[in-house]
Design brief:
Elements (H helix, E strand, L loop, with lengths): L8 H4 L1 H14 L4 E5 L6 H15 L4 E5 L4 H14 L8 H17 L6 E5 L10 H4 L2 E5 L9 H11 L4 E4 L11 E4 L16 H10 L8 E5 L8 H12 L5 E6 L8 H12 L5 E5 L5 H9 L3 E4 L8 H8 L4 E4 L4 H4 L6 E4 L2 H12 L2 H18 L2 H16 L10
Parallel strand pairs: 1-2, 1-3, 3-4, 4-5, 5-6, 7-8, 7-10, 8-9, 10-11, 11-12
The chain binds uridine-5'-diphosphate.
Length: 409
């Protein structure tokens, strides 16, 4: 079914939707082109899948283009991604060359047609080379935590990032000393998408049943790509500690992202660690399993996002929206969302995660209170309508570079 901006009135109110129309009226003469590295899998694709149709519904000419990569390129960009997150990762000259080589090929192939070009993350960052020839407004939207990167990785990326008109980070602490204007725009979820909409209880139970999960017993869940930075092995370690004290089942649900070459290896490690425990459900879900993921989270008692590094963690937002208390690693954007003791708990170790999970499993009233707070926190801060407003305002700001105050009327 086509997405209509008016449908959001029921969730965020008429005023918020009217404001979006007003902003779109002011900036509709400018077109927007998004560029990223995958159409499926991961948070950026998740956001663009919902945001692009809504911008179009607002009358904005909007495109979404995906760069093309090969194995050498994705291995290089995954290593860069990890190193930018601060992980100890070897960045070889061959990797940097693979990045430059694919960037040149994409520059030759992709048509740059927007007035504003919104380039997401490091993988396509080199597309900015076209700026010299074409002009236009170029924005680099960084979704990852680059607050303490490996110097070699950052020094490689910085010359690209500094060619943009502005950089956009998910939280203030990610901002870097750079020779460009920086904006803070947190990501968002779509409350009306299949991933987040309300579901009938029968559908939730049918999905649990499909995966042999017992709806009568507590369910702990983490939804994530199989990525070491999401710490799935740490989650299993926590679950094993919890099981010594309380009954529960663990669901680790994830899928592939086209630009993530490490997934298969990590999945094998996870399956080995889960061994023959029939209460650990490792689910490799195909792309577009949104309603099933929705149902798995709704059928959970507690949700984990025990990341070791995290740009934002849409999975946290998705769980909070569904009224689930979240136990999250105390890193990156998870700290914006999991307010310790208010919407969930922040933890630093499997032991901490196990301790908090036991507390939540034994206290239904606490789970309910944190869940209600979490839903409200997302409603106030992390819905797609707020995200759209931020981007429209930013496009307006680009049109008025030297003005402190932009007159709207
Ligand atoms: N996701 C999904 N299927 C999976 C695993 C994740 O659809 O098997 C979705 C998840 O629901 C969320 C996004 O992918 O919307 C992951 O975004 P997040 O910011 O949590 O992490 P990223 O993968 O971008 O690091």
């Amino acid at each position: 079914m086509p997405v209509r901006i008016g449908d959001y009135e029921a969730v965020v109110g008429k005023e918020t939707v009217d404001e979006l129309w007003l902003l779109a009226d002011r900036i509709r003469h400018r077109s927007l082109q998004n560029i990223n590295s995958t159409a499926v899998g991961g948070g950026v694709a998740e956001i663009l899948t919902r945001m692009v149709p809504l911008l179009r519904d607002l009358g904005m000419t909007t495109w979404w283009d995906v760069i093309k990569g090969d194995d050498a390129f994705y291995n290089a960009t995954k290593a860069l991604h990890n190193a930018l997150h601060g992980k100890d990762e070897e960045i070889t000259e061959a990797m940097l060359e693979a990045f430059r080589e694919r960037t040149a090929a994409n520059l030759a192939e992709m048509e740059i047609k927007g007035d504003v070009i919104l380039v997401h993350d490091p993988q396509p960052a080199g597309m900015v080379a076209k700026k010299r020839e074409l002009g236009k407004h170029w924005l680099w939207r960084c979704h990852i935590d680059v607050s303490s990167p490996q110097p070699r990785a950052w020094e490689f990326l910085r010359p690209y990032a500094e060619q943009y008109d502005a950089a956009i980070f998910s939280m203030a602490s990610f901002a870097r000393q750079m020779a460009v204007t920086q904006y803070v725009v947190p990501p968002s979820i779509d409350p009306l998408s299949d991933k987040n909409c309300d579901l009938p209880r029968a559908e939730v139970e049918a999905v649990l049943e499909k995966y042999h999960i017992d709806p009568e017993r507590p369910v702990l869940t983490q939804v994530s790509r199989f990525d070491r930075l999401k710490d799935p092995l740490g989650v299993i370690a926590a679950y094993q500690m919890i099981r010594r004290r309380a009954d529960c089942q663990l669901v680790l649900a994830g899928g592939d992202a086209a630009d993530d070459p490490e997934g298969a290896e990590v999945l094998t490690e996870v399956r080995e660690q889960a061994a023959d425990d029939s209460d650990i459900h490792v689910l490799l879900l195909p792309p577009f399993s949104d309603r099933e993921i929705n149902a798995l989270v709704r059928g959970s008692t507690v949700v984990f996002q025990k990341s070791l590094k995290e740009g934002f963690g849409l999975t946290v937002t998705e769980a909070l929206w569904k009224g689930k208390p979240v136990i999250g690693g105390a890193v990156g954007g998870i700290k914006l969302q999991v307010l310790n003791g208010v919407t969930g708990f922040l933890v630093h170790s499997p032991e901490g995660a196990a301790h908090r999970a036991l507390e939540l499993l034994s206290d239904a009233e606490l789970r309910c209170r944190l869940g209600e707070n979490g839903h409200l926190h997302v409603k106030q801060n992390f819905l797609l309508t707020r995200h759209l407003k931020d981007y429209l305002l930013l496009m307006m700001a680009l049109e008025h570079p030297s003005e402190d105050i932009v007159q709207m009327f």
